[in-house]
Amino acid sequence: MEKYLVIGDPIGHSRSPGMQNAAFESCGLGRPYGIRHVTLDELPEFFEYARKNLNGVNLTVPHKLLAAQLSDRLTGRAECCGSVNTLLIKDGIITGDSTDGIGLEEALKYCFDDEISGKNILFCGAGGAARATSVHLAGCGAKEVSFINRTLSKAVELSDLCKKVTPEVTSVCAVPEDENMCRTLLERADYLIQATSVGLKPDDPLPLPEKYFHKGLKLKIFDTIYHPTSIQRLAAELGILWANGKEMLIRQGAASFELWTGLKPDLAVMRRGFEEGTPGK
Ligand code: ATR
User: Fold this and answer.
1) SS3 257
2) Letter string b/e over residues 263-277, b meaning 16 or more CB atoms within 10 A of that residue's CB
3) First to last CA, the chain
C-alpha cells in the first residue's frame, strides 16, 4: 500500500519514485512511494484523500503555491517563501514544508565546493523555482540576491520578499533587455541560478541574450533543470563552470525523506535510484 506520493501536472517523468523508494528500501522500509497525476483543480480533493490515507507527499508544478494555502500548518521555511513541496501527514493534520531552498543550498556547496555566505547570487527567472529557493539563499548569508526576469513585477515581488525576510541582503531587479544592468549583475555574480522554464527543447532560446556571456565571466552557473538545456551547452562552450539540477532534486528529496522518517538517507543510494528512473534507460 502506497503511503507516500509525488503529484504534479505533468508528472510522468518524475525521478522521485526511483530515488525515494531506493532510500526507503535501504532503510528496510519497503517501496511505499508512488506517483499520481493530479491537476490543480483536483488539489483540494487530493488533500482530503492524503489526510486520511497517506503519510507524506511531494508536490511539483503547478501545486506549490496552492498547497501552501491548503496545508493546516506550515513550517517556518514554507511560510517565508509561500511555497510547499512536501507534506507531512500525522494524526490527520497536514503540515506543509519547503525543502527546495535547502536542496539548492546543499547542491551549490556540493557541486562547486564553496560556501553561500558573502556571495553574490543572481537568479534568472522569478517564477515558482526562484520563489522556493531565493528567500532561503538570502537567509544563508548571501551578500546579494538579485533577479533578472522577463516580467519585472514578479522580480520585484521576490526581491522585496528576500529583503523583508533578510534585511541585510542587497537585491536589485532587471529585465533581460536592460543590457547595462544585466552585464553589471553578471560581472559581479558568483552564481547564476537558471530558474526559468526555458531551455528544455533543443531549439529553445536562452533565457538571456547570448551576447551577455563570455569566457571572462567568473560566475558559476547552476541550472535548476536537470535535463540538458541551452544554457548548459553555452556554459560548456565558454568554459564556465556549471551544474544541472540533479543534485538539487536529490537533496530536496533527502530533506523530505528525513522529515517523514527522522532518518538521514544515504545520498549515494538516492543518486542510484535517480539514475535508475532515467526515462529510456
Ligand atoms: P514555474 O512554477 O514552473 O517556475 P512559472 O511560475 O510560470 O513556472 O515561472 C517560469 C519562469 O520562467 C518565470 O520566471 C518566467 O518568466 P515570467 O515571469 O516573465 O513569465 C520564465 N519564462 C518562461 N518562459 C520564458 C521565456 N520564453 N523567456 C524568458 N523567461 C521565460
Assistant:
1) helix
2) eebebebbeebbeeb
3) 26
64 part of the active site: yes
pLDDT at 200 over 80: no
Residues 6+ apart with CB under 8 A from 2: 32, 33, 34, 54
Q: Length of the chain in residues, anyone?
A: 281
CA of 204 to the centre of ligand 1 (A): 13
Measured in Å, residue 124 CA sits from the centre of ligand 1 at 9
Rg over CA atoms, the chain: 19
Sheet holding 33-37, edge to edge: 33-37, 4-8, 56-59, 86-90, 93-97, 73-74
Assess whether pLDDT exceeds 50 at residue 136. yes
Q: Which residues line ligand 1 (CB under 6 A)?
A: 61, 125-129, 149-151, 154, 196-198, 207
Q: How far is the CA of 224 from the centre of ligand 1 (A)?
A: 13
Give the pLDDT score at 281: 35
What cell does 98 get? 519547503
Angle between helices 128-139 and 100-112 (to 10 degrees): 70
Catalytic pick among 3, 52, 64, 201: 64
What distance in Å separates the CA atoms of residue 233 and residue 237, rounded to the nearest whole number? Answer: 6
Asked whether residue 173 carries a pLDDT value surpassing 60, the answer given is yes
Query: Which amino acid makes up residue 123?
Result: F
Report the chain's mean pLDDT, rounded to a whole number.
Answer: 95
The model scores a pTM over 0.90 = yes
